[in-house]
């Protein structure tokens, strides 16, 4: 891992703006501050200039002479970040932050950790590091699995589980066996502990600065005290959503698959 920089949202928005990507900068800034008046944005950007000067990332003399106030290295970093064509996004409700990995070129990727929509940390990595970085980001327990639990849901039942209080309706729809009921009860307990939100890793193709990201693939999962719930689609005719309490080794196998997907991008 080759550390690049840490900055605030307003600093990043300013760097992106002076590098020629104002629409991207607006998206970054509004994610942190919401919509502001032109006067408010100007005040925020002026404060960001002073912060970048203190970090020695803004050259006042070049700025006064009408030249780019940021170094060639920072300009290249911003360009590669904004113009990345592929992104892996790892959600984590409990940590109040997000890990994103942007493809730069060849085997080079960039990690981008966003903490509370305020702090942004960047580093260059090699694609072979991706499984380990994602594993460390989640840091799920590797406690041995005492019992493998499993059950299947319909698409509609799966969607209902994001809403608290719908467990009885899901039971009625799916008619679990005794073993499946045990798994369902444990899963619901773990889901409630995470505020009814599943974790996910999403793989996006970024088709242009103005276009919406295209979702290529997504995997859902949920940590438990022992094991990790992995969610996948099966060929079951009625209940295709398969939910299985899996071992830490199987979780690592899934992350190896994420690394393999990253290796296939151009």
Describe the structure.
The protein is of the alpha+beta class and 266 residues long. The protein has a domain of 73 residues. The protein is 41% helix and 27% strand. It contains 10 helices and 10 strands. It has a 10-stranded antiparallel sheet, with helices on both faces. α1 runs antiparallel to α2, α1 crosses α3 and α6 packs across α10. The longest helix is centred in the first third of the chain and has 17 residues. It is elongated. The model has no long low-confidence stretch (mean pLDDT 92).
Based on the model shown, name its key terms:
266 residues, alpha+beta, 10-stranded antiparallel beta sheet, 10 helices, 41% helix, 27% strand
Question: Which helices and strands appear, and what pairs or packs with what?
Answer:
Elements: E1 2-8, H1 9-18, H2 22-33, H3 38-54, H4 60-64, H5 72-82, E2 86-92, E3 97-105, E4 108-115, E5 119-126, H6 130-138, E6 150-153, H7 155-160, H8 167-174, H9 178-193, E7 199-205, E8 214-223, E9 228-233, E10 241-246, H10 248-263
Antiparallel strand pairs: 1-5, 2-3, 2-7, 3-4, 4-5, 6-10, 7-8, 8-9, 9-10
Helix pairs in contact: 1-2, 1-3, 6-10
């Amino acid at each position: 891992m080759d550390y690049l920089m840490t900055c605030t949202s307003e600093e990043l928005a300013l760097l992106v703006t002076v590098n020629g990507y104002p629409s991207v900068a607006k998206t970054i800034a509004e994610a942190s501050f919401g919509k502001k008046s032109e006067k408010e944005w100007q005040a925020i950007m002026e404060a960001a200039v002073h912060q970048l000067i203190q970090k020695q990332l803004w050259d006042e003399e070049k700025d006064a002479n009408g030249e780019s106030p940021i170094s060639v290295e920072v300009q290249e970093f911003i360009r590669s970040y904004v113009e990345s064509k592929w992104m892996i996004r790892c959600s984590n409700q409990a940590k109040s932050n997000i890990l994103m990995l942007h493809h730069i070129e060849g085997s080079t990727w960039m990690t981008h950790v966003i903490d509370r929509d305020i702090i942004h940390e960047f580093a260059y990595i090699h694609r072979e590091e991706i499984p380990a970085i994602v594993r460390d980001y989640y840091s799920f327990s590797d406690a041995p699995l005492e019992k493998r639990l499993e059950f299947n849901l319909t698409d509609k039942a799966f969607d209902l589980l994001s809403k608290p209080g719908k467990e009885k309706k899901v039971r009625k729809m799916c008619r679990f066996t005794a073993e499946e009921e045990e798994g369902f009860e444990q899963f619901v307990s773990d889901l409630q502990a995470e505020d009814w939100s599943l974790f996910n890793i999403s793989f996006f193709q970024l088709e242009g600065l103005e276009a919406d990201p295209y979702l290529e693939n997504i995997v859902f999962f949920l940590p438990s005290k022992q094991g990790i719930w992995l969610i996948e689609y099966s060929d079951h005719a009625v209940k295709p959503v398969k939910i299985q309490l899996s071992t830490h080794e199987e979780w690592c196998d899934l992350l190896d698959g994420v690394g393999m997907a990253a290796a296939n991008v151009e």
